[in-house]
Amino acid sequence: MNGNRSQRLLGRWCEGRVTVLVLSCLVAAPLAVCSWVTVARADESGQQAQRDQAPSAESKSSAEGNRGPSAVGHHHETLVRATEVIGTDLAEVDDSLGSVADLVLDLQTSQAALALCAYRDPPQDAEAMLALPITAWAFDRANAIKKPWLTDEMIRQSSPVTPPFDRFDRRLAGEQYQQFDQPPYWLAFVDRQQAKDPNFEFDTRDFKLVLFSSLKDTAVVSSENDVVGTISDLAIDPISSQIAYAVMDTAKDRAKRFAIPLGAFVATDDQRFKIELGRDEILKRPTFRESNLPKVVDRGWIEYVAVRYGREGVQNRPHQPR
Asked: Is 60 exceeded by the pLDDT of residue 285?
């Protein structure tokens, strides 16, 4: 029944968007065409100018680290640290809630799926929490503003989740989205993948999700299996729930950090992340300082992931030479 409900919800959601699009085209087609052409030409000019001005990946690698990664790739207007979101007091959002205790992550889609929220006055099970789509709030520097679609009634009627919280998979996460009448978080990811590969298959049920608390402090190793750093944080876009990049610290200089997209990591059998580059090659990449959270990932990392693996998200196997 949950699957049928999800399909009906998605159908109504898509039908509504198509209806609005058709009516808009019938009413203002000539103006829309002219506007589209104008915007497209301006966008092409702007993109060409940006390409002409953008330094190469090599020059970026040798630049001063505290300037941060280059302004290429997808630009996020707002990014928040996972460590800032956790502990955010939600009393001003809803007086029944305490604070955000943990985040449920989908490492393949590079998305923060759910926020696990503690109750101020727990229900029967004292360890129970509320699992909410992270897009339910606008997070900004550890402050939360409730989105209009999240009503107090939804919160009251939602079913709490109980330990163990590391049991989440996509099926359970999808059920939480259904509770709040929201389309599943993975739709945009699947659309992007199927646009590149019509035969792309996506597991909507059994794929295992992870907690941020278990991901934090994960060791990162080089192609020689030398430990080069640890995952200390994630930069998350609260509007789309996308994980823009992981923050890697090094023991050598903790004042400087690396912004690395999840697609650059290969998950190993011993629960570490491997970057299939030599230690020196990794450590010469651009860095940033704690007070200057980058809005984009360095072009070198974007190209590395695109050329070597061809898809976003943590890789489940090493690169296979073509």
From this structure: yes
Contact call for residues 297 and 235 (beta carbons, < 8 A): no
Among 300, 236, 106, 281, which Cα is nearest to 184's? Answer: 106
Domains 66-77+215-308 and 83-189 share a fold: yes
Please tell me the pTM assigned to this model: 0.74
> Taking all residues of the chain, what is their mean pLDDT, rounded to a whole number?
78
Dihedral (C-alpha) 224, 256, 214, 91: value to the nearest 10 degrees?
A: -170
d(CA 225, CA 318): 13
Given a contact cutoff of 8 angstroms between Cβ atoms, the answer to whether 262 and 275 are in contact is: no
Give the pairing of strands 80-81 and 210-211.
Answer: unpaired
Q: What are phi and psi of 85, to 5 degrees?
A: -65, -45
What confidence score (pLDDT) does residue 155 get?
A: 85
Q: Best-predicted range by mean pLDDT among 10-24, 89-103, 243-257, 266-280?
A: 266-280
CATH topology classification for 66-77+215-308: Photosynthetic Reaction Center; Chain H, domain 2 (3.90.50)
Q: Where are the alpha helices (DSSP H) in 198-264?
A: 212-215
CA distance 77 to 238: 10
What are the residue boundaries of the structural domains of the chain, listed by start? 1-39, 66-77+215-308, 83-189
The top-level CATH class assigned to 83-189 is alpha beta
CA distance 68 to 75: 14
As a whole number of angstroms, the distance between CA 115 and CA 136 comes to 9
pLDDT reported for residue 140: 67
